[in-house]
Request: fold
Amino acid sequence: MTTHPLTWAELEALTDFEIDTVNGPTNAQARLRLFGKNESDVRVTLYRDNHAWCPYCQKVWLWLEEKQIPYRIKKVTMFCYGTKESWYKRKVPSGMLPALELDGRMITESDDILMALEQVFGPLVFGMNDSKVMPLRQLERLLFRAWCGWLCYPTRSQRQDQRNKEQFIGVMGKVEEALSRTPSPYFLEEFSTADVVFTPYVERMNASLYYYKGYSMREENPGFSAWFDAMESRPTNPRNSERLPYSCSRLTAPNGRLLRKR
Reply:
C-alpha cells in the first residue's frame, strides 16, 4: 500500500478547530476562565507572568484551576525578562508577582493569596494552615533550601559540593517518607493544597539537577516518581506550559539569579 504526503491545503483543513480557552482544559494562553459559569460570576483577577514560568504564579494558577473558580488573567512582564508595566506598578508598587484581585482587594505573596481564597471559596480539601498541611509546607521549604544549597551557591571544593548533595538527598528521604504515609500517590489521602504547594519548584528542581548535577529526582526516588506521574496525569496540568529539562534548567542556572526576580 502506497501513501502520499498530504498537501498544504489538506493539512490546513485538518487544523480547522478552535481551542476553548475559557471553558476547556487548562491553557496558558487563557485570559478568562469560567468553567461553564457566567462571566458575571467572576470575582477574581490573577496577575501572572507572560510565559507561565513563575513558580509562585503557578501555585495560585493551579489552585484556581483545581477549584474551578472563575477568574480573569492579566499578564505582566517578569523583572528578569524586561521592564515591568507601569500600570502594574501602580497597582503593586513592588512589581512582584503574583498578585490577585479579589472583590476589588489586591493581595500579594502566593501563600497569602491562597489563604485569602480559602476564606472566600473554601480550602482545596485541606487548608494552608491545616495541621496536616503545615508540616508539608515546612518540608517543601526545607527541600527548596537544600536544592539552592546544592545548585545555586558556589562551592570552593568537591568535598563541599558532596556535602551539599548529601544534604539534598537527606531531605529527599524525608519527602519519600512523607509520601509513603498514605496509600495514594499524593502527600495526603487525596490531592490537596499540599500537592499544590510542592508542584512549582519540584518541577524546576528535577530539571535543573538532572541537567547540571546528573541527578534524577524521579529515578532515585520511587515515591516522588509516582507523585510526579500522578500530577502530570491531572487535567489541570497545562500541556502547553510543561517544562522541558533544557529550557527549565537554563532558566534556573546555578547562580540562582532568576529564582528571585519576579
